[in-house]
């Protein structure tokens, strides 16, 4: 079964190869809706908006909010400060980690329902499990940052996550916390393959904030591979990325 819906302002797809109860897909989408309601900075009645207005203290944050904040702090430390949810105006924006976190959690929900072969995608953040309907590894295309109708690389994944950070869709929404006034202009797209989509997502965001040095950071992470496109359209990949490439 396969279904795509617009939630969190983006297309979200759930595809399950195995036979499972139909309500699994509904529960998956309901979870995404609940995450949007809790973490959207665009919704005035979300928990993160209330937190940013000072209406919710650290002690009154939900368990999910505490988990995301802890993951953000761990990512900030692991990336030498290049991942930071704090904004210049003093508010907090968890979007650099929430999407991958939500996809990872939905994948767990589907796995706990008995599925071993499935695919979950939210706006380019993807978790694969097992094989696709043809009994092959899941094929994932990396879009051109200059023309979203073009696929510049295709990779085959099994039970791994992939995430892409860039400025070509949402503009300059990622910044270097060490130089917050400087726009990131040297690279336009950075894709990370990791052990799961949450890991890929959080380190893709951090690495993108590093600019051209980000791909070298990904190279140092065991179990991760990366592919970056600079502003001139030149791509650089980590040592083991080629093992996933099918075209």
How would you characterize this protein structure?
- By secondary structure, the chain is an alpha+beta fold.
- The protein has one domain (2-244): ApbE-like domains (T-fold), CATH 3.10.520.10.
- Helices cover 31% and strands 24% of the residues.
- The protein has six helices and ten strands.
- Strand 1 and strand 2 (10-16) form a beta hairpin.
| CATH class membership | Alpha Beta
Overall helicity: 25-40%
H and E order? EEHHHHEEEEEEHHEE
CATH architecture heading: Roll
The CATH homologous superfamily name equals ApbE-like domains
CATH topology: T-fold
Q: Quaternary status of these chains?
A: single chain
Q: Work out the count of structural domains.
A: 1
Present the secondary structure layout.
Layout: E1 2-7, E2 10-16, H1 23-39, H2 47-52, H3 63-78, H4 95-112, E3 118-122, E4 125-129, E5 138-143, E6 151-157, E7 161-166, E8 187-194, H5 197-209, H6 214-219, E9 225-230, E10 235-237
Antiparallel strand pairs: 1-2, 2-3, 3-4, 4-7, 5-6, 7-8, 8-9, 9-10
Helix pairs in contact: 1-4, 4-5
Describe, in short, the structure shown.
By secondary structure, the chain is α+β, with helices and mostly antiparallel strands. The protein has helices at residues 23-39, 47-52, 63-78, 95-112, 197-209, 214-219, and strands at residues 2-7, 10-16, 118-122, 125-129, 138-143, 151-157, 161-166, 187-194, 225-230, 235-237.
Descriptive keywords:
247 residues; alpha+beta; T-fold; eight-stranded antiparallel β-sheet; two-stranded antiparallel sheet; 6 helices; 10 strands; globular
């Amino acid at each position: 079964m396969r279904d795509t819906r617009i939630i969190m302002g983006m297309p979200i797809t759930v595809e399950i190869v195995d036979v499972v109860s139909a309500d699994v897909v509904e529960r998956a989408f309901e979870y995404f809706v609940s995450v949007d309601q809790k973490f959207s900075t665009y919704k005035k009645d979300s928990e993160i908006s209330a937190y940013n207005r000072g209406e919710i203290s650290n002690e009154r944050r939900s368990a999910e909010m505490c988990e995301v904040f802890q993951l953000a702090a761990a990512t900030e430390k692991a990336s030498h400060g290049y991942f930071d949810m704090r904004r210049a105006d003093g508010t907090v924006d968890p979007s650099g980690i929430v999407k991958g976190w939500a996809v990872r959690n939905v994948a767990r929900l589907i796995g706990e329902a008995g599925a071993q072969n499935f695919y979950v995608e939210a706006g380019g953040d993807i978790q694969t499990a097992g094989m696709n309907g043809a009994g092959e590894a899941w094929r994932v295309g990396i879009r051109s940052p200059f023309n979203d109708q073009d696929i510049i690389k295709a990779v085959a994944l099994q039970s791994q996550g992939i995430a892409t950070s860039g400025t070509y869709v949402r503009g300059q929404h990622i910044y270097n916390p060490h130089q917050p006034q400087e726009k990131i202009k040297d690279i336009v797209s950075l894709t990370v393959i990791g052990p799961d989509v949450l890991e890929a997502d959080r380190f893709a965001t951090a690495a993108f904030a590093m600019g051209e040095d980000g791909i070298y950071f990904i190279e140092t992470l065991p179990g991760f591979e990366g592919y970056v496109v600079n502003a001139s359209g030149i791509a650089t990949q980590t040592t083991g990325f080629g093992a996933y490439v099918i075209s």
